[in-house]
Amino acid sequence: MSVWDELTGQSEAISVFRAAAAASAAGGSNDSSMTHAWLITGPPGSGRSNLAYAFATALLSDGNVDGDESVRLQVAARSHPDLAVLSTDRIIITVDEVRKLAAASYYSPSVGRYRVIVVEDADRMMERSSNALLKALEEPPPRTVWILCAPSEADLLPTIRSRVRSVRLRIPTVEDVAELIARRDDVDHATATRAAREAQSHIGMAHRLATNEEARSRRAETLDIALGIRSVSGAMLAATKLLAIAGADASALTEERDADERASALRSLGIEPGGTIPPALRAQMKNLEEDQKRREKRSLRDGIDRVMVDLLSLYRDILLLQLGVETELVNLSIYNKLVTASEQSTAQETLATMDAIATARRRIESNVTPALALEAMLVSARRTGATA
User: Fold this and answer.
1) According to the model, what pLDDT value does residue 321 have?
2) pLDDT the model gives residue 292
3) Residue 342 φ then ψ, to 5°
4) What is the rounded (10 degree) CA torsion for 176, 182, 188, 192?
5) What integer pLDDT is reported at residue 139 of this predicted model?
6) Is 257 helix (H, G, I), strand (E, B) or coil?
7) Are residues 113 and 178 in the same domain?
8) Which domain of life is it from (predicted)?
9) How far is CA 13 from the centre of its chain?
């Protein structure tokens, strides 16, 4: 199986990286196809990190651009000796994390031609962190390859952008994502297609919707709550409900991972399940718990943003019906409800609601209390029942 088989809808980008891996395998250090630093950009869910790890696998597989199976498994487990990864579930990547990674970039490869360093969510670096990375990119070791991932080039400093080769991904089609989900997750095509459509081609979210009944239920409840708002007091109550849904979604994503991390940490410290943690080791467990709390905060913010993305898809569908635009709707499963909602307001009111959602997203990103931002947003979402 080729390492590129798990990717979808990115044939142009795959061709670029395959050519680079082939040039590397042929020893073409002066070949323009290969460079020491890459930036993969694209919208959320387009598969930035998946492509980064596929390229890493190809580089670490000596001479095999399709990737050796043993290397693929090591990269998937993040255990390959020549692979270093910086990813975070927190709000920012700290300068200490970047400095540590930059120092590791000067180590010689252990078993292969290259040492590969992947930085997921490079857009979460503040200026100090970016400057620490810039120094490593300015003086690159000859056998180290950096692969950065970010939503857009504008998310990084111009000085960093000038030192990387940028490859932009496109949004895969619903059909491409559905085909991947059906094949990889062993679900029927109809379920995969609905999940891909409602996830708006976000591969990770499509996987969750196709394989997790609770995730589907939470999304359906989100849309029903928004469609049921009839008054200002109803908007206040809806904000509380949506916060609860976002919290439940965030908890579902973090609880299992937190438990696995804690169990793994205890095993590594030689402590039996349920055993007492010696005082000398409690500091390490406390650090893990603090990291998990920071990740929980970020996960909640991401959960709130997912709720608002779903609401944007809802009002986008309503607006298309109001304008008489004939195109496929995102939320086809509630078509009758969409028609009713489109008759209870005007296109101008729907546009105002979409603007309010965009404003709320910016406010929350600027650390405005989510409850207040959601309440202000949902006041504009009232449907009085008066036919436009």
Assistant:
1) 96
2) 67
3) -65, -25
4) -50
5) 82
6) helix
7) no
8) Bacteria
9) 18
Q: Which amino acid belongs to residue 106? A: Y
Which backbone phi and psi does 186 adopt, to 5 degrees?
55, 50
| Number of separate domains in the chain | 3
Please report whether residue 226 resides in a domain.
Answer: no
Q: Which long-range contacts (CB under 8 A, 24 or more apart) does 217-224 make?
A: 218/245, 218/248, 218/249, 219/310, 220/334, 221/245, 222/307, 222/310, 222/311, 223/310, 223/311, 223/314, 223/331, 223/334, 223/337
Beta bridge partners of residue 167, listed in sequence order: 40
The residues, any chain, with a CB within 8 Å of residue 212's CB and separated by 6 or more, are 252
Percent helix, strand and coil across the chain, each to the nearest 5: 60, 5, 30
CA distances from 312 to 293, 307, 359 (A): 29, 9, 12
pTM of the shown model: 0.76
Q: What is the mean pLDDT of residues 4-16?
A: 88
**Burial class, 68, CB count within 10 angstroms (exposed 0-12 / middle 13-18 / buried 19+):** middle
For residue 191, the Cα-to-chain-centroid distance in whole angstroms is 22
Residue 118, pLDDT > 60, answer yes
| Domain co-membership, 245 together with 163 | no
Same domain, 24 and 63: yes
Integer angstrom CA distances of residue 220 from 32, 217, 223, 310, 314: 49, 5, 5, 9, 11
